[in-house]
Amino acid sequence: MKKRIYCMLLSVLMVLGTLLPAFKVSAEDRAKNITPNVNITEFKILNGQGQELNKTSRWSRFKIKLVWDAKKYGNTLKNGDYFEIELPDNFRFIEDSSAVNFPIYGVDGKVYGQGKITVKKAGGGTVRVTLNEKVENLYNVKGTVSMEALFNQDKIKLGGKNKFIIELNGKKHETEVEIGNPTSVENEILAKWANRIYDKVDELSWTVRINVKKDKFKKVVFEDELTVTEGSFDGLRYKKDSFELRKVEIDKFGNIKKTFWKKNVSDKIKFSNNDTKFRYEFGDINGEQYILTYRSTYKPNVKVKNTIKMLSQGKTHISQNEYKSAISDGTIEGDLLGKIKIIKVDAENNQLLLKGAKFKITNKKTNKTFELVTDQNGEAVSDKLVQGTYEIKEIQAPSGWIKSDEIINVEVKDNVAVIRTVKNKREKTEVSVNKTWIGKKLSSVKVKLLADGKKVDEVTLNEQNNWKHTFKNLNKYKDDGKTEIKYTVEEEQINGYDTEIKENSKNDFTITNKNNEKVKIPVEKKWEDNNNQDGKRVKEIVVRLLQDGIPTTKVLKLNEQNNWKGEFTDLDKYNAQGNEIKYTVKEETVVEGYDTEIIAGQVDGALGYIIKNKHNVEKTEIPVEKKWIGPASVEEVTVKLFADGVDTGKTLTLKKSENWKGKFTNLDKYKNGKEIVYTIKEAKVEGYESKIEGNAKDGFVITNKNVEKTEVPVEKKWIGKAVNEIEVKLLADGKEVQTAKLNEANSWKHTFKNLPKYDENGKEITYTVKETKVEGYESKVEGNAKNGFVITNKNLAKTEVPVEKKWIGKAVNEIEVKLLANGKEVQSAKLNEANSWKHTFKDLPVYDENGKEITYTVKETKVDGYESKVEGNAKDGFVITNKNVEKTEIPVEKKWLGKALKEVEVKLLANGKEVQTAKLNEANSWKHTFKDLPKYDDNGKEITYTVKEVAIEGYESKIEGNAKDGFVITNKNLAKTEVPVEKKWIGKAVNEIEVKLLANGKEVQTAKLNEANSWKHTFKDLPVYDDNGKEITYTVKEVAIEGYESKIEGNAKDGFVITNKNLAKTEVPVEKKWIGKAVNEIEVKLLANGKEVQTAKLNEANSWKHTFKDLPVYDENGKEIVYTVKEVAIEGYESKIEGNAKDGFIITNRNVEKTEIPVEKKWIGKVLKEIEVQLLANGKEVQTAKLNEANSWKHTFKDLPVYDDNGKEITYTVKEVAIEGYESKIEGNAKDGFVITNKEIPKKPRIPKTAVGTQIFGYVAMAGVSLGLLQISRKKRNK
């Protein structure tokens, strides 16, 4: 029995021993360090735009880019595998979370791993890249890591190239960057920059450097603003207590050499409402240098811009800086060659990955099928598949989503990964809401839709949408696809309403709002009985409230104590049906002798009811009429009413337009039971007497008499001599009523005063005046009573004025004399020999219109060339004497032959005696006229005038002309000059040349220039001016030299330079040759001393040849030009240039086109581990390649020349190193690739392999049998 048990146990152990290797493999699958087989294929330093950095400054931020591959691991990489790379200490890494912890993204935008930098304080660090489960379906994994960094200032050199080395697995990878020297900022006024605060990712420090230049500024103000230029950050603001100012000494590179003091200036800063702007009124800066620092809030990955302005007396300096936290990142890629990968996502949210979607995959050729189910990442990946067309069909949707009916056909190839994203729509539902009102409706309300208590949507309900809405396209289930979402609705709070929400059925809601508004009804009692004039009022009344016409139990008692007012309060505005209640009131107390009226109206500012009780007292009215004696001076008058002698305050306006009649109406007839006695008074009308007649019963008549007074002024005026006194009479309507005496004592004026304006009938009196006649005078009365009268008396006395003409010198034939009265011409007369040069002006008035004596004078009409003198007076007569005063003038002009002086002096002589002098110069154009000269002397003889020039040393003077036509003084200048000339050559010189000197274009001298006189000559002793006084223009001219181009520069003053350039020409031939296939055309450039001057196209039409012609041999400096040629580069060709300009150039192009040849290995039968393939070029072996499973039995021979050294196309073939036991067949060509198929030569029948799954099943079965036998054995033993 024991032996049998032992055998069974041994069987179990054998089975377990067989299974142990499987457990061992599982343990080996855990995460591992893959660093030893990871390679770095590229190491670069990039700027912010992703461009490779060659030169930068010491403080620049940049990215280190590493390209890595882990292809050696094929498709064996697992979740958690990692590799590490040491980073050199001449870098410093920024400890922002996004710079040292960063995701590694796949080509599908999903995270395939995580990067983490362990930063060393002294510089450098280690980056670890950890992969996740998404790499487990990838072959040949590779990727990048980009890390934001700074230079370690202790480990770099300025002003030169710095070498940076990263080493991995014994291989060094190098790159170089030039770091420039610091630049001078000695002229800087304002600069600012941001600094990261290393222990606070949510704050930034800002530094402002002020006045490095040491300038002076008055009334300085700083204005600063923070803005976000990339990203979103509502919390951006200054740290208001962080402002610190330092007075410092700064060197020309911006470094702080010394700090004098520092202080917190936060209390001097004025901030904007949102704390993103500030203003700092700094004051004067007198050459000092400052540093201002402050902090702001910050949010990682947001770009913040800070702008500061410095304002001083109209000038502005601005500095800006932007900051964004450092970001590192990475990428990863691999392949899923020969596999299908399905990614399942929500149709509305690509980030929501769906688990549990089942797909049926069918090989369209074989109809074989298999199923894939998406995992928790929403992904499903097949095993490697046979090439062909496959159909993908979803057969089961994730719970909570609708199955997609889309059928997807894909083509699977060995070298292609098939990735398809399938989207599923969620199961949807909808929620309805209906709004009802009890009471007054609002214009609109907002209703929120809640999903599991959280707001997801909102709608505004109103009359336009009939107070209804349906929220549609709502997810029915949560993201797990199983839990149904609970939808509810919620209304925003509405004051004055009670809200009830009822769910009628699932997801169908009614919201009812009842208006709970209250109202109050004020009531006021008003008595209309003239303040209880008849004493019939009651002491109190009772008022009842009615609701929609039905009496209620609510009453008010109104009396004098409550001022006849009361109020019904706390009344519902709406009834249970939502209709507004109509409240009214009713007076229940009956008041005898009063009529009652209830009206709605304002009571103390609120709408209520007014109860009016009216008692009609007896009334009367009083007519009033107005009469006038004389005109009415006003359009209306006011009449006051008195009751029992007391002013009632009532007035009546009587108007002319209403015939001066009116009535006092609606007057109480009685007061306290007695009849009122009414009287009237008129408001006083100035200038009128008033009389009131009549009574209140019959009416009153008010008569006004005009008592206005007037006065009439009168004035006496005289034309001519006045008498001592006159008498004036005043007439009223033609009847004399008063008289007055006018004389010098009362200034010939009088006013008749206190005269009635109107007569007894009210007509206005007409007043006139009349003078008692004065002998010998003519009298005239003007004016009127209103403005006054003027009586003018005119005296008519006459006189006469004699005049005589006398001459000194020759007399003219006749003259005209004018007689002036008070300066104005009144008569004229002709005097001549015929009337003995005499005349008398007769019958002239002695007095003018104003009564003043007229002043008579005479005036002669001007006689040219004569001076006139008037003597005498009007009484005795006038004598006019004329004297001849003719004038002359003498012009003089200065002319120069040669250079003029600044100024000359000319003297004028009269009969040989100097009488005047004049200065002549350029300002007066060398001309002057002596004017206003007497033509005759005191004896009447004509004066002889001449001119004389003050002598000028070195000048010859000549005077021409006369006094009548003018004088011309000519001065001639004899200055001499000389003209130098020099000869220069560009190119080879001749032995000798001849130069001609031209004066105003005419040849005057010649000279020979040669090497003996150093190619120089000076023409001497040349006159500066010609005979006309113009400066001579001297030029030079060279006798022409064949083969040379002559250029003359300079002038006569500084000398002439004649440059001769050698015009020799040359030509440069060029020829094109080809090794290999030629292109259609090429372009060749001709270079002169390295600069392009011409181009030419070479092709078959011109036999690939061209000659550049007519080329100058010498350059502008006379040096021989070096000609070369250059071909415009042709892609795929190697160019070689031989020859020279003299013999010609040959450009040979060799076709260096490359090609590649793919080769693939296929097997029929057993596959070996590896084979070798040889590549033959024109039958000769040039390369070999190993094909195996690791490279998918494929290889491409690359970088192969298309043409041989003779330019002929190379024929490429492949050959396999023979394999024993296999037949080899090669198909294809170099262009499309070769396929080598190896077929195993059969030796014996093949034995089928047993599947691994079947082996495991057998082991398990054997173990089960063994354990069963063991159990049976125990049972038997126990029995």
Automatic annotation (TrEMBL):
Signal peptide bounds: 1-27
Protein's GO biological process: cell adhesion
Gene3D superfamilies, A to Z: 2.60.40.1280, Collagen-binding surface protein Cna, B-type domain, Immunoglobulins
Record domain SpaA-like prealbumin fold: where: 338-425
Recorded superkingdom: Bacteria
InterPro entries membership: Adhesion_dom_sf, Collagen-bd_Cna-like_B-typ_dom, Fibrogen-bd_dom1, Ig-like_fold, SDR_Ig, SpaA_PFL_dom_1
Subcellular location: Secreted, Cell wall
CNA-B domain mapped to chain residues: 431-514, 521-613, 623-705, 712-794, 801-883, 891-972, 979-1061, 1068-1149, 1158-1239
Keyword Transmembrane helix: yes
Keyword Secreted tagged: yes
Annotated SDR-like Ig domain residues: 60-157
Membrane topology value: Peptidoglycan-anchor
Alphabetic keyword roster: Cell wall, Membrane, Peptidoglycan-anchor, Secreted, Signal, Transmembrane, Transmembrane helix
Annotated transmembrane regions: 1256-1273
Protein name as annotated: Cna B-type domain-containing protein
Species, as recorded: Parvimonas micra
